[in-house]
Amino acid sequence: MSLTHLPRRAGSAALLLSLGACQTPGGASGTTPGGETRPGQPQVLVGAGDIASCESDRDEATAAMLDGIEGTVFTLGDNAYPDGTAEDFQRCYAPSWGRHKQRTRPVPGNHEYHSARAGPYFEYFGEAAGEPGKGYYSYELGDWHVVALNTELPERARAEQERWLREDLAAHAARCTLAYMHRPLFSSGLGRDNAWVKPLWEALYEAGADVVVAGHDHFYERFAPQTPEGQAAPERGLRQFVVGTGGMTAYAFGPTLPNSEVRQARTFGLMKLTLEDGAYTWEFLPVGGGVLDQGRDTCH
Hints:
Blueprint: H1 5-21, E1 43-48, H2 58-66, E2 72-75, H3 86-93, E3 104-105, H4 119-125, E4 137-141, E5 144-148, H5 155-171, E6 176-181, H6 198-206, E7 211-214, E8 220-223, E9 239-243, E10 260-264, E11 269-276, E12 279-286, E13 293-298
Parallel strand pairs: 1-2, 2-3, 5-6, 6-7, 7-9
Antiparallel strand pairs: 1-11, 4-5, 8-9, 8-10, 11-12, 12-13
Helix pairs in contact: 1-2, 5-6
């Protein structure tokens, strides 16, 4: 990254603050990692994946949106391009999404693992990233149990994560459960095969989880509730969102998969989930304002 990019990013950050001013004020506050939330009160979970590069200002635009939205921020991996180095985090991520670090619950992506064992990622986020070398963890958000998973682990560590996930879900038998990770099991993107995340889906499905959110593919896509085999299951299936819209370049769609309901590859933006007792609402909020997708559903 050339130093010539830094003044341009700083200038655009000041310009894009006006975007955040159009949102609800007070976004810098809200739930922080390790903070407590009270059952019975709706909680906001907001974020995206595939975020920050010093080669563009699009992450500045989505960060400005975060400035005006209270709640817990999630990241879906590929947080700091190109290689998840300490420099990438400090120069590219920190000036934009990094200002919400104290309320962020991240997961890593494949670009974080361009650096040995994603070391700079774990160092940057600290305890909020989970145990170094593992990167998966869970927490309570209001009436919901939330699980953050690492899709970038080697094969042996994947099996250990699956065992942990099954134990975690058994120990937290909440009515409503949401999981997020970098790689989606289902995506209408071109040439993608993330079959190794299917055991995570199977554990979530068997435990009666409700929602999965992923990134990796740089667009927005919503699926109807389905089984890990991709069969429609409106009564107890997992509803998956792909939200790789944090700021990195957009991808094109390939053939549309079964159960895909909404696809959007023309804009960047955030997924905002409002988690209630027994129900949830979703909104895909694009840069520039408005709502491109929204809905509401109940938990199993």
